[in-house]
From TrEMBL:
InterPro entries found in the cross-reference section: Znf_GRF
Keyword annotations of the record: Metal-binding, Zinc, Zinc-finger
Protein name: GRF-type domain-containing protein
Coiled-coil parts of chain: none
Domain GRF-type per the UniProt entry, residue ranges: 17-60
Amino acid sequence: MSQNSSSNTYATQKEICRCGDLAFIRILKTPQNPGREFYGCTKGNKEDGSCGYFRWVDDDTPFIGEEKFNLLHILHKAEESLREVRSLFLEAEASRDWFKDQMKEA
Ligand SMILES: [Zn+2]
């Protein structure tokens, strides 16, 4: 009997591996854990650049991934920078308008 291993892999929307990508659910076929599902890196094997992410699907321990936390932190920082850029832009606009007025009066 031949089996297509790719049919045992499907994308998930809730788990993020250390690469920052969505993790895939894979089904284990070892004698110890036959048919048990786990989250794994999309890139598959270490040779393909995988981060080696691994977590059981049925392990319902509350989990806030360190990676997810880092991503939120980066997002927060990006929002801060965006605000800074916006205020710099408004300042630049204001001084441009001021300069225009000066030119009109000259
Ligand atoms: Zn990964």
